[in-house]
Amino acid sequence: MKLLSTFAASPYDIADLHLFRDVDIASAAALLANCPVMLTAAGEAVSDPARPRLVIVLRGALADATGDGATTRILPGESAGEQSVLDGEADLSGLKALEASELLLIDADLAWRLIEEADGVARNLLRLLSFRIRAASMQLRRRQKLGEFYRQLSLNDGLTGLYNRAWLNDVLPRLVSTAHATRAPLSLIMLDIDHFKKFNDRHGHQLGDSALRIAAQLLAGALRPTDFAARYGGEEFMVILPDTPGAVAAGVAERLCERMRETMVFDDMRLPLPHVTASFGVACLADGQDDHALVAAADGALYRAKAAGRDRVIVAVEVAVTAQPAA
Ligand SMILES: Nc1nc2c(ncn2[C@@H]2O[C@H](COP(=O)(O)OP(=O)(O)OP(=O)(O)O)[C@@H](O)[C@H]2O)c(=O)[nH]1
């Protein structure tokens, strides 16, 4: 930064500076008279950034990088560094000239004198800070919403809209812990579309995708609001039924199996495709079982449903995992 002149010797008018709007100009101008006006080149940082002071843009523009990725433009008449004056904690290293700019620098001591002696400066400062706080909290709210949006996005399967594997990995262990703690039953249904490779080979991948979407809609539409449906991967889905004993879950699986058999897969609303069927494995949480063992039990039952001819439900035999006696 290069010293150009004092404020009194510069061509700038104090009435154009936001901080001095509706202020007793004469007393403020007298206090500002000896403040330096500095020239900064494009891209240059404000020197001595650890020094608390007000930086007012007279010509050009500054960028204020707040450190959280956001950048604010500071235009002629606007200021930066107010907070550094108020709390004495300066970090003006994020201030950089966007173009060749002229800046008025007001040291903290003088800024305090302005606050105390020039009528209206304190009011303008409060207004400015209130505006900054409001803008910062709006930005925070926007980010929180965006974060929530992306979080949701990362937990849902793009093709079917059901929860995805990441969601399952997060939620299933917690549901299992809750079920053990409350001694409430918890059941799991795993289902896998039958001969889906053949379906894809015969009708094409796009129709395969349609079939998966329809299967997902069927699941989501047939369950209670307290149940969860997720895409486990490929053409495999999982249904979680909290507060549901194995016998009831088996009934739900039978109903889903039947509906799957009866559901038409349409391509362009003219051509119904062959029905798809699915095989189902059901398991109910046993004492001492963790989420992995529960999934393995449902998966084992599903495997047996496939082996037994597909398009059917098999219920896993409940095996309580008890502590092994010490040898
Ligand atoms: N269209 C489509 N196909 C998928 C998707 N994910 C997995 N698949 C296909 O699903 C098929 C699964 O094949 P397999 O694991 O052999 O199982 P299957 O043909 O259903 O046979 P069974 O399960 O034994 O009845 C593969 O051809 C995968 O390419 C997807 O998102 N869209």
From TrEMBL:
It is an enzyme of class 2 (transferase). SMART domains: GGDEF. It catalyses: 2 GTP = 3',3'-c-di-GMP + 2 diphosphate. SUPFAM superfamilies: cAMP-binding domain-like, Nucleotide cyclase. GO terms for molecular function: diguanylate cyclase activity. Its EC number is 2.7.7.65. It holds the Pfam family GGDEF. It comes from the Bacteria. Residues 184-318 form the GGDEF domain. PANTHER family: DIGUANYLATE CYCLASE DGCM-RELATED, REGULATORY COMPONENTS OF SENSORY TRANSDUCTION SYSTEM. This is diguanylate cyclase. It comes from Pseudoduganella lutea. The lineage of its organism: Bacteria, Pseudomonadati, Pseudomonadota, Betaproteobacteria, Burkholderiales.
